[in-house]
Write a structure and sequence with these properties.
397 residues, Sulfite Oxidase, Chain A, domain 2, Immunoglobulin-like, 2 domains, five-stranded antiparallel sheet, 23 strands, 31% strand, binds the ligand Nc1nc2c(c(=O)[nH]1)N[C@H]1C(S)=C(S)[C@@H](COP(=O)(O)O)O[C@H]1N2, binds molybdenum atom
Length: 397
């Protein structure tokens, strides 16, 4: 895994060279009420007009709200909770929040206040739910029917896990996983293992992970995991455990359902099992954000704009098609490369006459991978990166 990280860093260097407040617990945002479903109280401060609310635990960013810049702002970043968020009271004194560390030479707890003395790093990272794109599958997989916006690219600031591990005397021999536990209260009468948010990733992900307390320059809100959150850049959303209360280096993966049977890729109709592939690294993906398909487009020059990213290999190039994939043209990058885990913005100017178009994009990575045309059918509708389903249907008048 160490060599993998090094490869990733080299790809990043190659890519650089080549490229150019909380509104109060009770307040529901009025514009959300107008749409039907209100924003959940924990996210009432968000911009409801630019979001799609599926439920209290699933809120998606509209395609158009992903904008044209690189950074996804806090007020439009998607929200996903597997369990009800903890009480706002844990945010009264964020520095007093305590995280227990285990599987290290000197296991002990540390407050956020102490973590802040150990190191500081900012990483630009795509946070994406494993089920982003589920809404394009035909088999009605359970869960929010996300289209493209269960993803955003933001700046996460905190302490490198590596510095924390060093302060605790190093990882103990034989520990193969880094296991993080969410700070939710388990509802009474429920077996903890069934609902607890506890995720294991390969132990040496601690070399790139950070414990973050800031999001895009603001104190990390409870909705996104404040007081402190595990951030594993390049990995799917679920591994980025919010309000983390324990980080343990463990010999085995956690037996919590969310790891053992949840977030496992398997054929439609099959149950999840630990032998199936788990949702760790994100695959290569791109999609168009503008035109968004949310309204008509005027004939003339149009800047086709979108995002491209991967958790395994840097994006080398992006191609755009305005005829549903029959022909492709190379796009150029329209934004800076903010590191190996950020997404890259691309643009292609096209002249569109009146008519209908299917506009889509496909990314090509440094390791030679090309974003596929089709989704891979699977029970929980995870990891959709097929360019055909992600196309935007546009009417030009
Ligand atoms: N403690 C905790 N962490 C969690 C979750 C959760 O329910 N509880 N959900 C996970 C999932 S499935 C996703 S996609 C991301 C969503 O992060 P966000 O709500 O900040 O967008 O958080 C992950 N971390
Ligand atoms: Mo997720």
């Amino acid at each position: 895994m160490t060599t993998k990280i090094d490869t990733r860093r080299r790809q990043f260097l190659a890519a650089s060279a080549a490229g150019g407040a909380a509104a109060g617990l009770a307040g529901f945002a009025p514009s959300a009420l107008a749409q039907g479903k209100p924003l959940p109280p924990v996210a009432a401060w968000k911009d409801a007009s630019r979001l799609i609310v599926y439920s209290a635990s699933g809120v998606e960013t509209k395609r158009s709200a992903l904008g044209e810049g690189v950074i996804t702002d806090n007020d439009v970043l998607f929200l996903r909770n597997n369990l009800g968020a903890p009480s706002e009271s844990i945010m009264a004194n964020p520095d007093a929040w305590s995280v227990e560390f285990d599987g290290v030479t000197n296991a002990r707890a540390m407050t956020v206040g102490e973590l802040k003395t150990l190191g500081l790093e900012t990483v630009a990272m795509v946070l994406q739910c494993s089920g982003n794109g589920r809404g394009f599958f035909a088999h009605k997989a359970s869960g929010s029917q996300w289209k493209v916006g269960a993803a955003g690219c933001s700046m996460w600031t905190g302490v490198p896990m590596k510095a924390v591990v060093e302060a605790l005397g190093g990882v103990r021999q034989g520990m193969r996983y880094m296991t993080s536990t969410g700070g939710e209260t388990i509802p009474p009468g429920v077996e903890p293992k069934k609902v607890m948010v506890e995720r294991s990733v390969p132990w040496n992900m601690m070399e790139r992970a950070i414990l973050a307390w800031e999001l895009n320059g603001e104190a990390l809100p409870l909705a996104h995991g404040g007081p402190v959150r595990m951030i594993v850049p390049g990995y799917y959303g679920v591994n980025n455990v919010k309000y983390v209360k324990r980080v343990a280096f463990t010999a085995d993966e956690t037996g919590a359902n969310i790891q053992a049977s949840g977030y496992r890729v398997r054929p439609i109709g099959q149950k999840g099992a630990p032998t199936q592939s788990t949702m760790w690294d994100m695959n290569l993906k791109s999609f168009v954000t503008s035109p968004s398909g949310e309204g008509p487009v005027r004939a003339g020059m149009v800047q086709v704009n979108g995002v491209a990213f991967s958790g395994t290999s840097a994006v080398k190039a992006v191609e755009v098609s305005i005829d549903g994939g029959a022909t492709w043209k190379p796009a150029s990058f329209s934004g800076p490369l903010l590191g190996p885990y950020a997404w890259r913005r691309f643009v292609l100017p096209v002249r569109l006459a009146a008519g209908t178009y299917s506009i889509t994009s496909r990314a090509i990575a440094y390791d030679g991978q090309v974003q596929p045309e089709l989704r891979v059918e699977n029970e929980r509708a995870y990891a959709h990166n097929g360019w055909r389903d992600h196309a935007v249907k546009v009417t030009v008048a």
